[in-house]
Amino acid sequence: GSPAIDAGTNAGCPATDQRGATRPADGNHDATSACDIGAYETEVPIQVIPGPNGGNGPGGVGITDGSSTLELWLKGDAGAFANTSCTIAVTSGHDVACWQDQSGNNRTMTQPRSGQLPTYNAHAVNGQPALHFTEREMDYLQNNTNVALGAGDDTFTYFATWFPNVTNQAVIFEQNTTAKLPGRRAALLQINNYYGFNGESNDAHIVPYTPGTWILTSLLLNGAATNNVHIYHYGTPYTGTIDMNVQNVGTDQMLVGKKSNDSPLEYFDGDIPEIIVFSNTLSDTERILVENYLSAKYGLSLSANDLYAGDDALNGDFDLDVAGIGQYGGTQHTQA
Predict the structure, then answer these.
(1) Which among 90, 171, 124, 157 has a CA at the least distance from the CA of 273?
(2) Both 144 and 19 in a single domain?
(3) Residues 18, 41: contact at Cβ < 8 Å?
(4) C-alpha–C-alpha distance, residues 298 and 287, integer Å
(5) Does this model's pTM top 0.85?
(6) Residues 132 and 1 in one domain
(7) What is the tens place of the pLDDT at every residue in 152-189?
(8) Which helix (H) or strand (E) holds 143?
(9) Any idea what the Cα angle at residue 97 is, between residues 73 and 55, rounded to 5°?
């Protein structure tokens, strides 16, 4: 440490420093409180400009100007509108016709059919809003012009927080073609008592779940020949294998709450507060940062790598805008 710490005299020592911290203090932990030489610290404001390895995306991962691999960011607390032109802010209990993308890529999800609109719930979970989709009303949102993943992309990451009411076969989020073709789909899908990745006859539905509970999901494809689907359910890992020679995601549509083609159309019944898409396989460090951001925001406890304690009541209950830097498993994230 600095030789100035605890090296001054207490005579004339200010009662507090310029930050308001009580003086004198035991700065070198030798059980004796003494004034530092020069009891005033200097604070110089600096501008932090996000770089390619970190920024103002979820958990500090990605940048919201369209320049990073953060391709889609849908969240209930921003960008929900009552009209398809996205100009009338929606209020709780009313229909959502536009869900604006917060990634900087302008991948807005809309629904022009007035009878098939999800409903806005301003206080769905932990005081945070969500969109409620009703299966019998065939609610969904779509984007047919500006999708998140490039054609054939087989290395990407999805995150979602969701609440399924039933154990039906239903889409939380997908990118797909309008024609039903093996391998052209990239969906986060629930099917009976399991959920996972659906690639249209190239699937890994490997995670058991319980309806009527909130779920925090991370889904990663890494492009490897085997063990290429990694799903984290509240941080607990599940691994599956699909045929990467078949997988070739199409670029016709993105949808929330519905399948792109064929019958049944797999309408979702439940709530969705947030969906995030990256066009690369995030590192373990990056994944954990995003998971902790979602965990804190929605009050959903992680079963593994729950590293953020600021959302606990005893630590101040700071739930929002969590970001971080770190190292895990040989990978680093050094800017947020």
Answers:
(1) 124
(2) no
(3) yes
(4) 17
(5) no
(6) no
(7) 999 999 999 999 999 999 999 999 999 999 999 999 99
(8) strand 141-143
(9) 15
